[in-house]
Structure formats: C-alpha cells, structure tokens
Amino acid sequence: MYTYFLTPLFLSGLVAGSPLVLRQTGPGTPTTGNNSTGTPSTSTGGIDMAAAIKAIMPSSNTCSGAQVPDDCRTADQAAPFIVKSYADFSPGELAGVLALMGLESVDFKFKHNVSPGRPGQGTANMMMPNFVSQYAASIFGEQAVAGQSPDAILSMVTVDEHNFGSAGWFLKTFCEPGIQDSLKTGTDAGFQAYMGCVGVDGNDSTRLEYWNRAKAAFNL
C-alpha cells in the first residue's frame, strides 16, 4: 500500500509560505445537489454535518485568507456533498474519513498538492496520482482516463460532486472488510487500523487531535 497523503513537509511548507505550483481554475462557490424537497441536505443521522465539520476542522468556517481560494470550501459548502457521498456510512466511519480529510486538506483549504507540487496528487484526502486515476476511472470509466495527464485526471474528480467522496471510495476499495468493521465501532483501535490501511502513522499527534474532535462531534 502506498502512502498517498501529505507529509509533514507539506504542512511545514504551508507555514513557510511555499510557492503555489498547481493552481486550479474555477469558481470559488460550489454547486450543490438538491434532495427531494429542493434544498440541499446538510444533516445525517440527526447530526448537523456542517456543525460537525466545523467542530472537527476548526478553520473550516471561512475561506478568508486561503492560500488557494479556488481550492477552499467552507464547512457549510462541503456539508451537502459529504452527506450525499456518505449516506450509507456509520458514525464511526464518518468520523474516521472526516478526521483524515481534515488533516490532509488543512480543513478543506486545499484539494491539490501545492508543496512540493506533485502533479496529479489531490482530492480532499490528497490521494497519490495512481489512486486518483483509479478513482476517476471508477466514476467516468477507464476510456475517459486513458491518455490524460495527471493534472487533467485530477481535475475530473476535484469538482465538489466527487472531491469529498474520495476518502470513502478508498476506504471501501482498499481497506479490508475487517478494517471497515473496526472503524465502524468508533474506537481508537478502529482508527489505528484505518490509518494503517492508508499507510500513515495513526499515533501522530495532529492526526489524533482530528480524530478526538471527530469522536466528540459524532458522540463516539
């Protein structure tokens, strides 16, 4: 299993104000899908998703001052897409994927790698290009992906409709059923198993901070 997430070098690069390499274009305001009532759904299982995201990702209440404004989404903007993408996920699974996305995207401030600027790496959980290609193929078909550059493929799945669902896709596609079941319990052991599948250190203090906030947000 390849580690596909941002390393501490990425986070240190942000602090140091590293230069933007792969700026994406597009509007800063996402479009949202509507439910049967004609309004976007922002809650699931009695949980206000926007409020949960804000609790897990403290800076997700605003995009003011974002280094890459086109990448940034607030909790309120992201919530409808997350509710739709994770409709069949348990609270434990939701807590796990949101904790992961929060750290990797720096509270939804980034959806592509800006330091060191690796072409094709991105989505809300910062997958490596090989996984991005597989994710895109799972949505659009292999023919749509064949022959495309890494950045072109990434642009296919960083639209709001697909950007936030990538972490769940990875969990269901690459993590063994036992790991998925363990994460459903909402326990620390389940989170550690999930991080092992991802290929990152589950004992990293910053990851644990996100996880602990996620547990609290979902009453785990």
TrEMBL record:
<feature type="signal peptide">
    <location>
        <begin position="1"/>
        <end position="17"/>
    </location>
</feature>
<keyword id="KW-0732">Signal</keyword>
<feature type="region of interest" description="Disordered">
    <location>
        <begin position="25"/>
        <end position="44"/>
    </location>
</feature>
<protein>
    <recommendedName>
        <fullName>Glycoside Hydrolase Family 23</fullName>
    </recommendedName>
</protein>
